[in-house]
Design a protein that fits this description.
By secondary structure, this protein is an alpha/beta fold. The protein contains 11 helices and 19 strands. The chain has helices spanning about 40-45, 95-100, 155-160, 160-175, 190-200, 215-220, 235-240, 255-265, 290-295, 310-320, 340-350; strands at about 5, 15, 20, 30-40, 55-60, 60-70, 80-85, 115-120, 120-125, 135-140, 145, 180-185, 205-210, 225-230, 245-250, 265-275, 295-300, 330-335, 355. Strands 4, 6, 7, 10, 11, 18 and 19 form a 7-stranded mixed sheet that branches. Strand 12 (about 180-185), helix 5 and strand 13 form a beta-alpha-beta unit. Helix 4 (about 160-175) packs parallel to helix 5 (about 190-200) and helix 4 crosses helix 10 (about 310-320). The longest helix has 13 residues, at about 310-320. It is globular and about 60 Å long.
Length: about 350
């Protein structure tokens, strides 16, 4: 079968090969035929080593498709079921799950070190234990979440990561209050979803911040009340909040520098929500006096900060009701053979989300 493979960490191009095979189908596992997958910035972060991932590997974790085979002991799934890929399913038994923080369950990430594929040259891993830049993949049954028949595969794929992450940051983690002021720094697919989440929650002012003009224009269509470049953020803070700072600021870049800017843009007693996934050696710093004196809440948001199955259901309900726009997030479509074009579109900021049709 065909799959896009990164041979070594640090390479910026994927090679589409036709000699890849799935491995591991057995008890508790299912094999999926991938129909659509989104390109998330986390895939690029894994390719360049920001996020830890053994290589060679098949990127992709934001996918949807059909169940084509089922291992022993799997219940609740049948061949032909339409599913989205959940890259971080809850085990239900660990300490995080028992505390009601299932989005912090790490059980499935242990699969990142277990190969999902093989080829004549040896084993091939799947990013985050999945790997959706492929025609077929074997995953744990918990990774395959059934979707209603009216949800297109490309929409379901986005719900599997970016949409859930952005919406959840605003709704679950920050719990944006109606009438509040919001700034979102970084307006790719996740940032736009955070904007939509803030709008759903009733924010009065939502300022989108991004260096790419096309993304700023797009943010206005998704609910931002104003869109500015990073150089214009200080002026927006002064005009909109009289210099006090925004009630909520979302950092959706994953850089210490932008997190620091976000902190300084947050009002005293306000909330900084860190959504971007950054590098382990990129340190965000605050001094002990300002940490105490300003009483700003710093809230990281992992995968939307809540029960992902409930978050999926909520995203579908909001989409059906016309409260959020998911189709509009897909600005580009490519076939698997053109995956490197999609990577370039992501790196330049040209695309909000590129749908790879398998």
């Amino acid at each position: 079968m065909r799959a896009a493979v990164l041979h070594e960490i640090g390479q910026d191009k994927l090679e589409v090969l036709d000699d890849v095979e799935t491995v591991g189908l057995g008890p508790g596992k299912v094999k999926l035929r991938i129909r659509a997958t989104g390109l998330c910035h986390s895939d690029i972060s894994a390719m360049n080593g920001v996020l830890p991932q053994p290589a060679p590997f098949v990127p992709g974790h934001e996918g949807a498709g059909e169940v084509i085979d089922i291992g022993d002991g799997v219940t609740g799934l049948s061949q032909g079921d339409r599913v989205l890929v959940c890259w971080l399913p809850a085990c239900g038994a660990c300490a995080s799950c028992r505390r009601g923080q299932s989005h912090l369950c790490l059980a499935s990430l242990m699969n990142s070190g277990v190969p999902n594929f093989k080829r004549p040259g040896g084993e091939v891993f799947g990013f985050a234990g999945t790997g959706t830049f492929t025609e077929e993949v074997v995953v744990g049954a918990g990774c395959a979440v059934p979707i209603p028949d009216d949800v297109p595969f490309e929409i379901a794929a986005l719900i599997g990561c970016g949409v859930t992450t952005g919406l959840g940051a605003a709704i679950n983690t920050a719990q944006v209050e109606a009438g509040s002021s919001v700034a979102v720094i970084g307006c790719g697919g996740v940032g736009i979803s955070a904007i939509q989440g803030a709008r759903v929650r009733g924010a009065a002012q939502i300022v989108a911040v991004d260096p790419v003009a096309s993304r700023r224009e797009a943010a206005l269509k998704f609910g931002a009340t104003e869109a500015v470049s990073p150089d214009e953020l200080a002026d927006a803070k002064q005009r909109i909040t009289a210099g006090e700072g925004f009630d909520y600021v979302f950092e959706v870049v994953g850089k210490a520098a932008t997190a620091r800017t976000a902190y300084e843009t947050t009002r005293r007693g306000g909330t900084l929500c860190v959504v971007g996934a950054g590098a382990m050696d990129d340190h965000f710093q605050v001094n002990m006096f300002e940490l105490f004196f300003d009483e700003k809440r710093i809230l990281p948001s992992m995968y939307g900060g809540g029960d992902v199955l409930r978050s999926y259901e909520r995203a579908i309900a909001l989409w059906r009701a016309g409260r959020i726009d998911l189709a509009g997030l897909i600005t580009h479509r490519v076939r698997l053979d053109s995956i490197n074009d999609a990577l370039d579109q992501m790196r330049t900021g040209e695309a909000l989300r590129t749908c790879i049709e398998i």
